[in-house]
Amino acid sequence: MLGITIHQDLLAYYLRLSVEDRDKLKSTDESDSIANQRALLQNYVEQHPDLKVLQSVEFIDDGESGMVYERSAFQRLMEEVKKGTIKTIIVKDYSRFGRGYIDASDYLEQIFPFLGVRFISVNDGYDSHRYKYGSAGMIDVGFKQIMHQYYSVTLSQKVLCAHNQLAEKGKFHASYAPYGYVKSSEKYKLEIDEESAEIVRYIFRSVLEGKSNKQIAQVLNEMGAITPLQSLRKHHKTVKNWREKASRYIWNSNMITNIIRDERYTGKYIYGKTRVAQIGSKKQIATPKEEWIVIPNVFPVIIPQEMFDAVNSRPDRQKKQTAKPNKESPRLFSNIVCGYCGMSLTFYDVKNPYYICNEYKNGVTTECKCNRAYQSDLVVLTLMAIKEEARKLQEQIQVAKKAARKNSRANKIRSLRLKLNSIPAKKEKLFKQLLSGEITKEQNEVLYSKLAEAEKALNEEITALQSTSEVVNVETETQAFLESLLNRTSLDRKTIQRFVKKIRVYMNDRVEITITLKPLNGQEQLVTKTYTIPSIEGNRVWIYYRTWYREEKLKEQRKMLFQYADDNNWDVVGECGDFHSDAKKQFRKVVSAAENGEMDILLVENLNWISQNRTELYQAIENMRKNNVSIVVTTGTPYYTFLDLNLYDEVKGL
């Protein structure tokens, strides 16, 4: 439903499995599993002809608490309910829908009756069609909701209390052992994992020898030392839901820091560093150090206390307090990673800001080295990606509108729906009149029956019309949003965070931008747009080098460029270089060679060497294009060397 609401009166199966349910499934009871919930609901629907004829959709929240209603699938379900596409919701029992009494009651007693939504709870024997006024006044419904909420709160309190008691007795009860240890066959005990423990000892010894975190990480990567994630995978092979973002087998400085600050290696059991913000929430907040539970002499010792204290008392190992910058960071993109190793790119705030992978510094000798992307390129490419999808959606809307205008049945259905949508408000008015005494119970029943009959007749007429015609309702808000988006000439951090899910960078090859269409069509649909660097025609290369520093640097740059050309099997047909400013006298040879057709490729280390003046640089780029010369930059070729430069002039702030 790409920004278009299709009226179908769907039946929604809502299935939920909480974390507690998952733990329970590991033991004996499987009645709450997603598969069994689905089977129960399908069996119920099969036995009811009025439900069986409806088209069904599923909304599943796996591992979500019933105490909060900010669940992803639940929110999507409510969005469809508001659009009017879903008129029936079926759940296994009230607790699957939600354990919070007040919020659940709002839905059952006010929201669903007002929107004309039928709600069915199979195990509770509840079907809102049998109750004219929602669930109001039903003591058993309210009592069950209160009990579900009470159960959730008391269960969380009992679990927390049990964990604290185990911790105070020195019994380890976490899901996974810390790096350096493995769970013992004896319950609540840990044993030393010699493979990873030896690495922990090496790290502490290296710190005492004066090695930096970076140096230690480089050695561990060269050794192929098992990382914390690899250790977890090794000892928990059946676990399949590891976060992709954490799927890294590369040592870095932060990992070294985390290990040398972990006092559990001295044999202490430390518990309670964080706690949940509130019951049902996934948010963890730090607790004061004085509230931690610290029990000495619980684990086998990997690092003696004296060594731990010596390492962490070194001046270079003290935590540094970094002042928060007063001005807003110029960094616009956050979810940007190296396409080769998957690690986040580091942002450099220079004249032409860029993001670069620094993992090669940790001893990772892959394509990661110097893999970079310029922020100006990313803004242009992201804006292009968003506009491309917005333009597609706009075209779909126009086609749908045109079809709706031509189809008289569509107009008829729209008119009938307006009448149908007014009935819930009329029912609510009758209910209020009954409560206030304006009408009698008998009068209410007569009037309510008439409304029910009218509602049934309208639904039947709409169903008959829909069998030959599909209707779309295009919201003016969606169109206005698309228009504003297509007219944009800039992107801010907020818009980028709203649209961009992930950017993967592959130097001198391509950039993959994954955007979410939810801001455009309300659906969590992901689209990956790939923008590649054009293939190079020919192999005649001209090398240009330049530096403002020592003349030795010029020689080093020249050597590196020749090596790059040799690695790509290019024939060097010319070279020249300018030292210091020199008014770029030697670059005139490059221009002349391009105009005479002597070269196919211009190879430089950095475009700033051509010119730091934007106008001059653009002129040079246009000159190369005019003469069919490809520009290759060893530190990452910017996209503006081959894209329309007007795109960059139009984007404000670059």
Give a nutshell description of this structure.
The chain is 44% helix and 17% strand.
Tell me what the structure shows.
The structure is a single chain. The protein has 654 residues and is α/β, with parallel strands linked by helices. 44% of the residues lie in helices and 17% in strands. It contains 22 helices and 24 strands. Helix 9 (213-223) packs across helix 11 (253-260). The radius of gyration is 33 Å and the shape is flat.
Shape: flat
Beta fraction of the residues?
A: 15-25%
> What Rg is obtained from the alpha carbons, in whole angstroms?
33 Å
What is the mean pLDDT?
78
The termini sit apart by 36 Å
Oligomer: single chain
Percent range of helical residues: 40-55%
- Report the sheet with the most strands, covering strand number, pairing sense and barrel closure: 5 strands, mixed
**SS class:** alpha/beta
List segments where confidence is low: pLDDT < 50 over at least 5 consecutive residues: 1-7, 23-31, 134-139, 141-155, 243-247, 468-475
Number of helices: 22
Q: Biggest sheet, strands in spatial order?
A: 3-2-4-5-6
Number of strand elements: 24
What tags apply to this protein structure?
about 650 residues, alpha/beta, 4-stranded mixed sheet, 24 strands, disordered N terminus
Note the topology.
Elements: E1 4-6, E2 10-17, H1 19-25, H2 34-46, H3 49-52, E3 56-62, H4 72-83, E4 86-91, H5 94-97, H6 101-115, E5 118-121, E6 126-127, H7 139-168, E7 181-183, E8 190-192, H8 194-208, H9 213-223, H10 228-235, H11 253-260, E9 269-271, E10 274-276, E11 284-286, E12 293-295, H12 305-312, E13 336-338, E14 346-348, E15 354-356, E16 372-374, H13 375-406, H14 408-436, H15 441-466, E17 472-474, H16 476-486, H17 493-499, E18 500-506, E19 510-516, H18 518-521, E20 526-532, E21 540-547, H19 551-567, E22 571-579, H20 587-595, E23 601-604, H21 614-626, E24 630-633, H22 645-650
Parallel strand pairs: 2-3, 2-4, 4-5, 13-18, 21-22, 21-23, 23-24
Antiparallel strand pairs: 1-17, 5-6, 7-8, 9-12, 10-11, 14-15, 15-16, 18-19, 19-20
Helix pairs in contact: 6-7, 9-11, 13-16, 14-15
